[in-house]
Amino acid sequence: MLSHLVIDATLYNGDSIFYVVTFLLLMWLVKIFAWGPITKMMQQRSDKISDDIDHAEKSRAEAADLADQRQEALQGSRVEAQQIVSTAKSDGQEQRGQIINKAEADAQALKAKAQDDIAQEREAALVGARNDVADLSIEIASKLIQRELNASDQKELIDSYIEGLGKPHES
Amino acid sequence: MGSGTVSTFQIWKLTFSTANVVSGLVVFILAFAVIFFTSRHVSMRPSKGQNFLEWLIDFTNGILKGSIPAKEVSGFGLWGFTLFLFLFLSNQLGLFFNVAINGSAIVRSPTSDPIVTLTMSMMTVVLANYAGLKKWGTKGYLASFIKPSPMFLASNLFEQVSSFLTLGLRIFGIIFSGEVLLEMVWSLAELKGIPTLIAAVPIEMAWQGLSVFLGSIQAYVFLTLSSVYIGRQLEGE
Q1: Distance between CA B83 and CA B60 in Å, rounded?
Q2: Structural domain contains residue B35
Q3: What is the tens place of the pLDDT at every residue in B203-219?
Q4: Whole domain around residue B26: which residue ranges?
Q5: What total number of domains does chain B contain?
Q6: How many interface pairs between A and B have CB atoms less than 8 angstroms apart?
Q7: Is residue B2 part of a domain?
Q8: Where are chain A's structural domains?
Q9: ipTM, 2 decimals?
Q10: Which bin fits A146, alpha (ψ -120 to 50), beta or left (φ > 0)?
Q11: What is the pLDDT of residues B109-146, one digit of tens each?
Q12: In a domain, B3, yes or no
């Protein structure tokens, strides 16, 4: 039986070539239809996975950075707020001082003006009173002496009289 | 096969066995169908077919990685994958389709014929030697035959021949004997009509199951040993 097989094997020399060709053809087809695309995709997938891992690591680092920055900003804004409050306080104090000073100055000015006014009015009243007294005395005098005196003469008379009244102890 | 005439035909001066040619074509078509339909929609998220194909590729690459240096293994991936697929389908074909016309087999396992398995093992030996020649140059390649000393020249040459023969005849022996036994069980079934048929069917099925297992193992072994031969050439020791 074995010899029969060996003889057979030497007989079908064409089969050998047929199988080599078939196998190489199959290998070529496998490469075109399956091996090429599949291994490419497997490579892409492994690349993508390692990319994703890298990317995840990077974004985690970025997130940590951002958190740090936020913390810093928070600290900064707290300091700034304190600064603003203290500036506002000092500004307010300054303004208060200014307002008080201004009010004081205003009050002083008003007071001085009022005193001036009072003095002026007293002067005016004094002048008015002097005129009234002159008129009155004219009336009295006219009533007394029954005649109309010349007003200016009379005034002169009265003035001298009042002057005499002003310094009664000198005469 | 075993009994019966063998149908042959001739082209130029080459003799072809019809059974081998037809079976080879059937395996070729089956293998192409498998890789064609499993690789239709290649995408980042693999479908069922793609998953299967990727698993198979990983499997054959794993076998190669066991023996071939890691730097060179990528050059043999396609060859290993095709070889495994081809041998696996060849080994299984005869278990399920054993077609004979006028007593001569037309479709059976191509690997149950030594000419086919020896062709395969010859391809392996040629590929291994070619890889060694390419890596070490003509001088280094020839020098590898007289290592560790010129005394080993004969044994090194004999090793090449024995690799070629054992690799080819191992797979042939297993597959051929499997088919012969299937045929014997079948002739037993035909012996006395229905009673023997009923008795033979379970035996036939059990043996078919075992043969599927053996055929898968043999395809695996063939690829493993092939990668060992290639690895040995590439290591150059």
Answers
A1: 9
A2: yes
A3: 888 888 888 888 899 88
A4: 8-235
A5: 1
A6: 114
A7: no
A8: 2-166
A9: 0.79
A10: left
A11: 888 888 888 888 888 888 888 888 888 888 777 877 77
A12: no
